[in-house]
Specification:
heterodimer; A: 116 residues; mainly beta; 6-stranded mixed beta sheet; B: 115 residues; 7-stranded mixed beta sheet; 11 strands; 0% helix; 49% strand
Chain lengths: 116, 115
């Protein structure tokens, strides 16, 4: 079984400061990892993904995430937060075993508030 | 290229009625997924369909819930005899056939309220 943990329900950061939203995962095989963002009354929007290759993945709107296999983590980061980054962020994992699990398992989400 | 289209955006039903939620995937996408989001929770996988086939329904409740994706027309998530606990946001997502393990494209969701 695969699972995702987002240990923080809410993260507050001042505008212009760096932000980190934490995510750890558990899979039996190799992970595909994703970050999605959800604005109020909207569907999820894709931010970035890790499939293979470089551990540091760059995505939309200046976000990046670092895959750490030994710590089973995939934290989302941004060097300088904007007020418009305030939203709900979801980490997700899919276990790629080759035979294939098609389920994308989401964490419970972290609400990011960027304070002007 | 229109995104994933879901309708209605809001659906109100009384207990015991039926709810039908529709999802039209992005053009060229033949894989559809349904997820349910309860307040203060993440998205929970319900079902994965391809045209005319249910691939994985392991997240669907055993009773009252069904899903289809016919050869023509949108995917339908059907909830019979709704109860208050069915109140949630239901999201549909789609992916192209050659990239099923990669990113999903989500619709804006249907908010189901059961009175």
């Amino acid at each position: 079984a695969q699972s995702v943990a987002q240990p923080e329900d809410q993260v507050n950061v001042a505008e212009g400061n760096p932000l980190t939203v934490k995510c750890t995962y558990s899979v039996s095989g190799n992970p595909y990892l994703f970050w999605y963002v959800q604005y109020p009354n909207r569907g999820l929007q894709f931010l970035l993904k890790y499939i293979t290759g470089d551990n540091l993945v760059k995505g939309s709107y200046g976000f990046e995430a670092e895959f750490n296999k030994s710590q089973t983590s995939f934290h989302l980061k941004k060097p300088s937060a904007l007020v418009s980054d305030s939203a709900l962020y979801f980490c997700a994992v899919r276990d790629y075993t080759g035979a294939g699990s098609y389920q994308l398992t989401f964490g419970k989400g972290t609400k990011l508030s960027v304070i002007p | 290229n229109a995104g994933v289209m879901q309708n209605p955006r809001h659906l109100v039903r009384r207990r015991g009625q039926e709810a039908r939620l529709r999802c039209s995937p992005m053009k060229g996408h033949s894989h559809v997924y349904w997820y349910r989001q309860l307040p203060e929770e993440g998205l929970k996988f319900m079902v994965y369909l391809q045209k005319e086939n249910i691939i994985d329904e392991s997240g669907m409740p055993k009773e009252r819930f069904s899903a289809e994706f016919p050869k023509e027309g949108p995917s339908i998530l059907r909830i019979q005899q709704v109860v208050r606990g069915d109140s949630a946001a239901y999201f549909c997502a789609s992916s192209p056939p050659d990239r099923v393990r990669e990113k999903l494209f989500f619709g804006s969701g249907t908010q189901l309220s059961v009175l």
